[in-house]
Specification:
Blueprint (H helix, E strand, L loop, with lengths): L1 H40 L3 H14 L3 H14 L2 H14 L5 H10 L3 H12 L7 H5 L11 H7 L6 H14 L3 H15 L3 H13 L3 H14 L4 H13 L3 H13 L6 H12 L3 H14 L4 H13 L3 H14 L4 H13 L3 H14 L4 H13 L3 H13 L5 H9 L2
């Protein structure tokens, strides 16, 4: 019996030794993309290149070459970027064409830029009109005759243009205008997937979650890996308080290896609301490892730890937030709340005071500062704070005033 158990353990170890390198490699690629993307967003191109070099030593992937090219463009090393984009094309045909179009535009070479942009537009990697028009790389050639000639070709069918207009108006909060465009094209495109997606966006913006859900569910039955559809589904589920469903949808997006660390933060919030604390903290830890100074992530991590009773760890997260955001009144309030929960009254008073120095119009902070003062046996100061809270509209303060401040 013992011999059989040993053999079984040995078999498991052998299997793990075969499987683990592949598992680590898959995790490493996604993690490196996320890390490099974060570094690029923070303007740390040299560090991003180092991360991508390490990843490319393990695996040759077109996404890594494209991202390294982005870093090299920021550094001004166009020759290295072109080499990387050509390498990306070798791995996945046409995947580097948009990057090449940007580089030659930055060089002021409109003819070569538009040659590559045209290839991109006729490939699976084509970009939306908004994505191209808002890209600053093309500013050097946008007044050239070649640029004007390029856009006279009508690259986008009407439904694409209308969808872009609807997204634009919804982004500005102009729901009525977006709905009007949708109505104008309904007779011509009612069976189109893009029209159904546009109608889902408008329904969601109007607060009609059930109708939006029906539309996007229909779309996903045909295209289960479409990123836009999945993102919208997650938004609808969260807005409908279906946090378990939203967390599953975010997991589907994460499994597509999209280099978007924000997905972990959004899933963490869903896990928090479904009471899956360990999963929430795991996701937040991953996000913070990529964006260590992110205010929302540090705040969420602290609040979850506080809710579980781990006040020491909560205070650590809140203190980290203040280290990165020393002039944010909300960061002081969160740490003050944590001190208040642990009955560290003087520390709570100090942090509420700092918060109110930055924003004296917060009635809740005045009230909590007063409660902390009261527990620290500073009744006179507490009464001052209660009166301030009441003047600013906090009705709870009247109970404290009548009990402790009227003699």
């Amino acid at each position: 019996m013992i011999h059989k158990e040993c053999e079984m353990k040995r078999t498991v170890i052998i299997l793990v030794s075969f499987l683990l390198p592949g598992m680590i490699s898959g995790q490493t690629l996604t993690d490196k993309l996320l890390k490099a993307d974060a570094l690029l967003k923070n303007g740390k191109a040299d560090q991003a290149v180092e991360v991508l070099n390490e990843a490319l030593n393990e695996k040759s992937d077109s996404r890594l070459y494209n991202m390294r090219a982005e870093a090299e463009i920021i550094k001004g090393d166009f020759s290295a970027a072109i080499a990387d984009l050509n390498k990306a094309n070798e791995i996945n045909n046409f995947s580097g064409e948009f990057g090449l179009a940007k580089i030659y535009a930055l060089r002021g070479d409109a003819t070569t830029s538009l040659y590559h942009l045209e290839i991109c537009m006729n490939s699976p990697y084509r970009k939306s009109e908004k994505e191209i028009m808002l890209n600053p790389a093309f500013s050097k050639i946008e007044n050239s005759p070649q640029w004007r000639s390029f856009w006279q070709k009508g690259w986008y069918p009407e439904i694409d243009t209308k969808l872009s207009e609807i997204e634009y108006y919804l982004g500005l909060g102009k729901i009525e205008e977006a709905g009007s465009i949708l109505s104008d094209i309904s007779n011509r495109y009612s069976e189109s997937e893009k029209f159904i997606y546009a109608s889902a966006l408008v329904s969601f913006a109007q607060g009609n979650n059930s109708e939006a859900l029906r539309s996007v569910t229909s779309l996903l039955s045909q295209e289960p890996k479409d990123v836009n559809y999945l993102q919208l589904l997650a938004d609808i589920q969260s807005a409908s308080s279906n946090y378990a469903g939203a967390s599953q949808t975010y997991s589907r997006l994460i499994n597509l290896e999209i280099p978007d660390a924000g997905l972990y933060l959004k899933r963490a919030e869903c896990y928090r609301k479904t009471g899956e604390t360990e999963r929430a903290l795991s996701d937040i830890s991953k996000y913070i490892s990529i964006y260590p100074s992110d205010k929302n992530a540090l705040s969420l991590a602290g609040r979850i730890e506080a809710a579980t009773g781990n006040n020491i760890k909560a205070l650590w997260y809140f203190s980290e937030n203040l280290k990165y955001h020393p002039n944010d009144p909300d960061c002081y309030i969160e740490r003050a709340n944590s001190y208040m929960s642990s009955k560290s009254w003087e520390w709570a008073v100090n942090d509420y005071s700092m918060s109110l120095d930055l924003d004296p119009s917060n009635p809740e902070a005045w009230l909590n500062k007063g409660v902390s003062q009261l527990n620290a046996a500073e009744t006179e100061n507490a009464c001052h704070d209660f009166r301030q809270a009441y003047r600013l509209g906090n009705k709870k303060a009247i109970g404290y005033i009548s009990k402790y401040c009227i003699k």
